Amino acid sequence: MQQPNCEPNRSFRLGLFLDDRLSGLAELSFGFPKIGDPYLGFMMLGPWAQNSGIGIKFLDHVEYLARQAGGQKLFLAVLSINPKGVPSRRDRAFLQPGFGVQLPLVINM
Question: The pTM is what?
Fold first, then answer.
């Protein structure tokens, strides 16, 4: 789903492989909610990759790409049917100083 102001030519669609097995997917887009804003619209790990710290490393890479593009905040969207998808204050502590995460941008479904 394309968001308003989305800049598809700047988007990243990422795959995470563990031992040649596709274990995660993420999409980093730009231009939502405002032009130029980095937006993590999708991130998912397979059950075998969860609770191992891999997700944090994957998100670190997404954050790196957003920073390289000049982002100051990384916007997230979480479906209301997935409350576990909203990181807690403790979970957000791994983000580097000076880079904010705008939470929650929750989409009700």
Answer: 0.72
